[in-house]
């Protein structure tokens, strides 16, 4: 069965009401990365970092998947689909996608500050400042901060190398190493970009089709096109 790898960023969740990072009203227009998304920030001002992720987790609880997430999940009925996402929300899973690799962590999980393998789900939205892991160390958001390694990237490159088609939805392709994923598709594998804006596609050498539309509109249309091509 043909394998489709769907590589997503914050834009796929924008139509669910979640902020992106680099759009005009994005998260990085309202917060400094060095205040809320670095190991130094967590050490220097733990309360602000915990509050930042608590706010995003609380917002996520009242958010639901949009037609883009649903179209991606429904593709599994026609193709061998794997999602590699930069997003830390769980909307792909809630839409029904069964194979999701999170490159930058997950909002709904916390982990030991001492042992990055000790990961626990969080009930509700609120992490308390003094919540501790079983190993006795303080818990922290299970998020990859800037300057930290991206442990799932190697696995993601293997997934990308298996793609017969790659769909890139809602990412500016501005953050590395995640953005490099488009370079791991085999030569000749078609890459479809679904984004109303202009992500940095300069490093894409494969056949490229840019569907300039919001994900909630463009993704269902692209899914339908791929299904019809398969059936024809
Ligand atoms: N539908 C599809 N794409 C959209 C929509 C929409 N409704 N709205 C915005 N976009 C596009 C923008 O045009 C942009 O290309 O989504 C992309 C969002 O880019 P960023 O805000 O940079 O988000 P992302 O690419 O996911 O950021 C990557 O940066 O800050 C880190 O860890 C964070 O995972 C994040 C990484």
What report would you give on this structure?
With 232 residues, the chain is α/β, with parallel strands linked by helices. The chain is 31% helix and 19% strand. The chain contains 9 helices and 9 strands. It has helices at residues 11-14, 27-30, 33-36, 39-44, 46-61, 67-74, 91-95, 153-161, 215-231; strands at residues 3-8, 80-85, 100-102, 105-112, 119-121, 139-143, 165-169, 191-194, 208-211. The strands form 2 sheets. The protein has a 6-stranded parallel beta sheet, sandwiched between helices. It has a 3-stranded antiparallel beta sheet with strand order 5-4-6. Helix 6 packs parallel to helix 9. The longest helix has 17 residues, at 215-231. It is globular and about 60 Å long. It starts with a strand and ends with a helix. The model has no long low-confidence stretch (mean pLDDT 97). Residues 9-11, 14-15, 20-23, 26, 86, 104, 170-172, 174-175, 195-197, 199, 214-215 line the site of adenosine-5-diphosphoribose.
SS content category = alpha/beta
Mind describing the biggest β-sheet?
6 strands, parallel
SSE order, one letter for each helix or strand: EHHHHHHEHEEEEHEEEH
* Helix fraction by DSSP (H/I, runs of at least 4): 25-40%
Total helical segments: 9
Walk across the major sheet and give the strand order.
3-2-1-7-8-9
Strand percentage lies at: 15-25%
Shape: globular
Identify the quaternary structure here.
single chain
Count of β-strands = 9
Tell me, rounded to a whole number, the average pLDDT: 97
What's the gyration radius in Å? 18 Å
Low-confidence stretches: none
Distance between the termini: 15 Å
Small molecules bound: adenosine-5-diphosphoribose
